[in-house]
Amino acid sequence: MNNTEGTGRELPYIGGVLKFRLPFVHYRIEYQDFIQGAILSCVPLGITAALVSVLGIPIEIAVLMVVINNFLYLLHTSFGDPSVAGWITAGIPLYITYLVGFEAGPDRILALIALQVLVGVIFLVLGVTGIAKYVFIHFPISMRAGILLGAGIASLMRIFNPAQPFMAKMPIAFVVASLGSFFILFSARAIHYRAEHSWFAWIAGFGIAPGFVLGYIVGFITGEIPAPKGMFDHFIIQMPFGEMFSSFSALGLGMPSASTWVAAISLAIVAYVLAFGDIVVLQAMVANCNEVRKDENVVFEVPRNHIITSIRNIFMGICIPYLPLCGPQWTGGQALVVNRFVHSTPAQEPSYWGGATSIFWGMSIAMVFHPIVQLVLPAKLIGFGLTLLIQGYLCVYIAFAMCTTNVQRGIAGVMGAALISANYVKLWGNAFWSGPTLALIVGALLFFLLEYGHEEKSV
Questions:
Q1: Most exposed of 37, 123, 388, 457 (fewest Cβ within 10 Å)?
Q2: How far is C-alpha 35 from the chain's CA centre?
Q3: Could you tell me which of 12, 457, 81 has the C-alpha nearest to residue 299?
Q4: How many C-beta atoms lie closer than 10 Å to residue 255's C-beta?
Q5: What are phi and psi of 405, to 5 degrees?
Q6: What is the DSSP letter of 20?
Q7: 144: burial class by Cβ within 10 Å (0-12, 13-18, 19+)?
Q8: pLDDT tens digits for the chain (459 residues)?
Q9: Is 296 helix (H, G, I), strand (E, B) or coil?
């Protein structure tokens, strides 16, 4: 049995390693997660600015790339991986630094193709051979908690950093949205209200959507959020597939040179190290689902996650090279799906897979319709900030819950601090020695020095 498995039933599926499930056949579409996803469609569109400025991609093509990438997230939950997938976000500054070292134009696109395909190959080799599963099974609890703690605090630091736009640009709207969302999602009183009042349980089922809407209205009144513009300029977004494939992919530009492939190897390894932390977070959240909801067994297998992530990276790298790359998990979205599932009864949400899949059906379909995108885009900072807050909250409390001894807590704390602090510098001028790498080394040294081979009573 995988270490994330529960005691309940597993949802039926078609196939073997890739467990194919169809909406309306194996699970129902959860309209509340669908709406929540539609509201959060503003979040992935934030990468379009980098696609335009760094790669010289026209905005219409950049938006189309985001939409296609979002539909590919559905590969995970449609084929048996419980991941609410996303980017390899922490490495975006490193990818940009790497890309601007190439001449603007086709050379820069070819450099991204090499990087993304190599990342896909790393995921494929480690997933198919089973190496990733072996490493993951033997990964110490203290180091898992350290990654969770570092990821959680890093998210919270972005929110409370005055240089970030959340509190600086919309303090009233963001505080109102945050307090409303946190009360609905995490308050002990709200949990009581869910059980006592069906109307409140229905509202709470929308996750952060009520808080988002409340913050949007307050921000509009205070002037912190501008009115939507150009909502009815188009009904469907523009889809210039021909130009995208001919000018910005290997299909039109050909494959990179040997020297370009070699130049991308070290950063591809760094990207995988960054993604490994997301896999640790995913495993912990799925384990939390199985611990709370005994009625369903949500199975997470590292090789399956790796294989699907590799497919996304190799396909996108060749056909639609995508600057933030394709990662194994979006922690903010994962937190939303997990939180709603664990706080719902089987009658309210019969299966984890309904919510995990519906959030991306809602997000992906919403981005196809121009009026919806323009409506939610002015409040994109609220949507992004709320996912960071919830991600931070859940990562921190799961990290604390995982540790059963003081030694584990100490190692987790030091490792988490290393992960956060080292992100501000590159030791020896090399991107490889950034936060994730240094954190893994520090955590491993402390584990073998303080914990390995010694028994300590749980406290």
A1: 457
A2: 18
A3: 81
A4: 13
A5: -130, 160
A6: B
A7: buried
A8: 344 565 678 999 998 888 999 998 999 999 999 999 998 888 888 888 889 989 999 989 999 999 999 999 999 999 999 999 999 887 787 788 788 888 989 999 999 999 999 999 999 999 999 998 888 888 888 988 888 888 788 888 888 888 888 888 889 999 999 999 899 888 888 888 888 888 888 888 888 888 889 999 999 999 999 988 888 888 888 899 999 999 999 999 999 999 999 988 878 887 888 788 889 889 989 999 999 999 999 999 999 999 999 999 999 999 999 999 999 999 888 988 998 899 888 988 999 999 999 999 999 999 999 898 888 888 888 887 887 888 788 888 888 888 889 999 999 999 988 888 755 555 666 555 666 677 888 899 999 999 887 766 666
A9: strand
Count of other CB atoms within 10 angstroms of residue 189: 8
pTM assigned to the model:
0.82
Which residue matches tokens 């513009």? Answer: 229
Sorted by sequence, the CB contacts under 8 Å of residue 68 that are 6+ apart come out as 320
Biggest distance spanned by C-alpha atoms of the chain = 66
Give the C-alpha separation, 156 to 161, whole Å.
9
Rounded to whole angstroms, the Cα distance separating 225 from 325 reads 30
SS3 368: helix
Burial of 243 (0-12, 13-18, 19+ CB in 10 A): middle
What b/e sequence results for 39-61 when a residue is b if at least 16 CB atoms lie within 10 Å of its CB, and e otherwise?
bbbbbbbebbebbeebbebbeeb
Cβ-contact 447, 141 below 8 angstroms: no
Helices 141-160, 435-446: inter-axial angle, 10-degree rounding: 140
**In residues, how long is the chain?**
459
